[in-house]
C-alpha cells in the first residue's frame, strides 16, 4: 500500500504543479523538495532506525505522510493551493520517506535467512514495483482526469491502509545494542563502516551518479511529454500509462534478477544494468515516439531492478544487523543525496539548452559508471562476503 501511494503521488504532484507553473525550474523544484531530505536527514534517520523498533518507525512515517496529504486536501477545498504549498508537502513527505525506507530495507534480514536475500528482495521488488510503477502511475493519471482532490486523496488512503497492514505484523524489530552511545557517535560509526568498505563505497558512488541522471531527466519529463505543445504531446492519463512501461520491465527484472545473477555473475549483471540505465535516461533524446520511449523505459526498468536486487542483497549480507540502519542511511546519503542536485541540474539545463538536452547530457554522463566496474569484480565481491563469514 505504501508503494501504491508513492506511485500515485509521483504522477499526481507534477501534474498538479503544471497547473500552477510552466517553468522547468519550478517543476524541477518539486523533485528537489521530495528528495532533499535524503541529503539532509538520511544520517539521523539511520541512527534512529538502529535505536527504535523498525516496524513502529514505519507506522509513524505512514501516519505523518497521510496527515500531510490531508493538509493539502484542505488547502484545495478552500482554494489555497499553490506551488509553494506543494513544495512544503513534498519536503515533509520526503523526510518521512527517509525513515520509512531505511526501516523497511533494514528489517528484512531479521525476517529472511541471509542466503535467501536475493530471492526475497526480488519478490519484494516485484510487489513494490507492481504497486509503485505498474498500478500507481496510470491510476494517478486517471484520477487527475477526475479531479485533483480525488487524485491527491488516494495516496493518503493507501498509507492508512498500510498502517493497518503493519499493525498485523507481530514481534519486536528493535536492534540489540551492546552499549549506550550518542546519536553523533552512532552516525559516525555508520559512516566509518561505509567508508572503510571499498565495495560499498564504490556502489554508493555509482548509484549516486545514476540517481543524479534519472532525477535530472525525471524532473522535467512531464514538460517534455504532457500537453499539446510538448515534444511528445500526451494527455495526462497517457502520461501515466507511458510511465508504466518502466514498471513492466521492472516487474520482469524482479523475477529474473536471481537467474541473471547466477548465469552472468554479479559483475557482468551489474555492467548490463549500467547499459540499461544509459538507455533509460537517453532514449527521449533520440526519439519522441511513445512506443520507442516506452521500450527504452522497459529495458531500463528491468536492468535497474537487477542492479537493485544484487546490490541491496549484498549490502544486507556484509553488514551486521546492528549497523544496517546506519549503513543504509549513509549509503543513501551518497546514493540518493544526489537526487535533489539532479533535479536542480535538470531544471537549469532545460532552461539554458532546452528539454531534449537534459536527456542527452545525462546519458553521456552515465558512461562514467563503467569506471566503477573496475572495482566491482566477482572476486572482490566474493572476498567481501567471505570477510564477514570469517569475521
From TrEMBL:
It comes from the Bacteria. The keyword Repeat does not apply. The keyword Transport applies. It holds the Pfam family MFS_3. SUPFAM superfamilies: MFS general substrate transporter. It is found in: Cell membrane. One of its GO terms (molecular function) is transmembrane transporter activity. Residues 1-381 form the Major facilitator superfamily (MFS) profile domain. InterPro entries: MFS_dom (IPR020846), MFS_trans_sf (IPR036259), TM_effector (IPR010290). The chain crosses the membrane at residues 25-45, 66-90, 142-169, 208-232, 238-257, 269-286, 292-312, 333-350, 356-376. Keywords: Cell membrane, Membrane, Transmembrane, Transmembrane helix, Transport. GO terms for cellular component: plasma membrane. It is a multi-pass membrane protein. This is Putative multidrug-efflux transporter.
Amino acid at each position: 500500500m505504501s508503494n501504491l501511494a508513492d506511485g500515485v503521488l509521483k504522477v499526481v504532484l507534477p501534474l498538479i504543479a503544471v497547473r500552477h507553473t510552466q517553468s522547468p525550474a519550478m517543476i524541477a523544484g518539486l523533485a528537489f523538495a521530495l528528495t532533499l531530505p535524503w541529503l539532509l536527514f538520511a544520517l539521523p534517520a539511520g541512527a534512529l532506525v538502529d535505536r527504535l523498533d523498525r516496524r513502529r518507525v514505519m507506522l509513524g512515517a505512514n501516519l505523518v505522510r497521510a496527515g500531510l496529504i490531508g493538509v493539502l486536501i484542505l488547502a484545495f477545498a478552500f482554494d489555497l493551493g499553490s506551488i509553494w504549498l506543494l513544495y512544503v508537502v513534498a519536503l515533509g513527505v520526503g523526510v518521512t520517506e527517509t525513515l520509512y525506507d531505511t526501516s523497511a530495507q533494514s528489517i528484512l534480514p531479521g525476517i529472511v535467512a541471509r542466503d535467501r536475500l536475493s530471492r526475497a528482495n526480488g519478490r519484494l521488488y516485484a510487489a513494490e514495483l507492481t504497486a509503485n510503477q505498474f498500478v500507481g502511475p496510470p491510476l494517478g493519471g486517471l484520477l487527475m482526469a477526475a479531479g485533483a482532490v480525488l487524485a491527491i486523496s488516494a495516496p493518503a488512503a493507501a498509507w492508512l491502509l498500510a498502517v493497518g497492514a503493519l499493525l498485523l505484523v507481530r514481534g519486536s524489530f528493535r536492534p540489540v545494542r551492546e552499549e549506550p552511545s550518542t546519536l553523533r557517535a552512532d552516525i559516525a560509526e555508520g559512516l566509518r563502516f561505509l567508508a572503510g568498505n571499498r565495495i560499498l563505497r564504490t556502489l554508493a558512488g555509482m548509484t549516486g551518479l545514476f540517481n543524479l541522471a534519472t532525477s535530472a531527466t525525471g524532473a522535467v519529463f512531464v514538460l517534455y511529454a504532457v500537453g499539446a505543445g510538448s515534444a511528445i504531446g500526451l494527455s495526462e492519463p497517457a502520461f501515466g500509462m507511458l510511465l508504466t512501461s518502466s514498471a513492466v520491465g521492472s516487474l520482469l527484472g524482479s523475477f529474473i534478477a536471481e537467474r541473471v545473477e547466477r548465469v552472468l555473475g554479479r559483475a557482468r549483471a551489474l555492467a548490463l544494468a549500467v547499459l540499461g540505465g544509459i538507455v533509460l535516461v537517453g532514449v527521449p533524446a533520440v526519439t519522441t515516439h511513445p512506443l520507442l520511449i516506452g521500450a527504452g523505459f522497459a529495458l531500463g526498468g528491468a536492468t535497474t531492478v537487477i542492479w537493485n536486487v544484487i546490490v541491496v542483497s549484498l549490502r544486507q549480507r556484509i553488514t551486521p544487523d546492528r549497523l544496517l540502519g546506519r549503513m543504509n542511511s549513509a549509503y543513501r546519503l551518497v546514493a540518493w543525496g544526489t537526487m535533489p542536485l539532479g533535479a536542480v541540474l535538470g531544471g537549469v539545463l532545460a532552461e539554458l539548452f532546452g528539454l531534449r538536452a537534459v536527456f542527452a547530457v545525462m546519458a553521456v554522463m552515465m558512461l562514467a559508471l563503467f569506471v566503477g566496474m573496475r572495482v566491482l569484480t566477482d572476486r572482490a565481491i566474493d572476498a567481501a562476503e567471505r570477510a564477514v563469514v570469517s569475521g
